[in-house]
């Protein structure tokens, strides 16, 4: 087995870089294998914040790739192509139309589905089209139902010899790989068994990631939270169970709340950890209060209605944009693992700009697929068939370029601004 990220040498275990490095061209280039060096990659939602950030990161990581920006708006597409340069083009694509999709996929090697939100989607149209056209697939899904619906296409993808990864963005995505490495180290190196895995996420404002992220957040407030406690599935009210989590230098302590996120179920089933939960918080603090109030005051049926949520987004988006200018767009994710011998370790990733970090993370998954890391089938990031164990180190390095903090497999006291011993209570 290749050396893991968990064995980074001393200073390399904590990577610190300036925000400027995240925005300029000081990026470690990737030399793809000859057969995929000039691959055509279609980024659906490529005129949006997440898709555009992904296309930009891909063009910097692998300048020889030919990037196809997929979307409905030709004007926005032309602007994106002008930014990316000569190795890019725009394709008008309607992801809800099978013929449009299959035509767009007919001459590309990999499709990156970043056209969310994924909540309330009843079909995996892009994945089905990818299988039909034998095109490698990656999505940035952050919805549990959609993710496991995508997994149901595993056998069809195997038969078509197509590698596919679902939930392959920053969180879920990079966070899943971080969790998988913590669990692997606990079992193989410390000879102990994981008991509790906790995902904690923080984003200042909307993270600069646009109205899609805002819509996703509102839609999640209408979903009952699924968590696991000692192997038992439990259901909880969204945006409850607040914890004050220390994200370390540059972020500090932040309140985070329970949300229904796909990595909880996938980590429980794939990594076989009996207690798993995920929480999210934002800033300024009054946004958390607002999310909590919406959960308590608005019917769940209202928050599950995409058309009504879209109206809320249109009302709130100008205000959110204005506050974003003050709050910034810092992002942090902390993954905590507690084991049977009372051993506690964590993984931590912090970046000054979510809009950059999400592109780096998604691009890292895309490159891993092009390098041949992913086997035929549909996989979660923590499955070794999705991202091979020996490929995890490189993926995390690429995703963490420009990070202000990146830590793997360290005790909490080495990271926290106010260290304390983690208790082993019955909370999730």
From TrEMBL:
Point out the signal peptide segment.
1-21
Saccharopine dehydrogenase NADP binding domain boundaries: 41-158
InterPro entries reported in the protein's UniProt record: NAD(P)-bd_dom_sf, Sacchrp_dh_NADP-bd
Q: Which Gene3D superfamilies is this protein grouped with?
A: Dihydrodipicolinate Reductase, domain 2, NAD(P)-binding Rossmann-like Domain
The record's keywords, sorted A to Z, are: Signal
**PANTHER family, per database record:** CARBOXYNORSPERMIDINE SYNTHASE
- Protein name as it appears in the record: Saccharopine dehydrogenase NADP binding domain-containing protein
Identify the species of origin: Gossypium stocksii
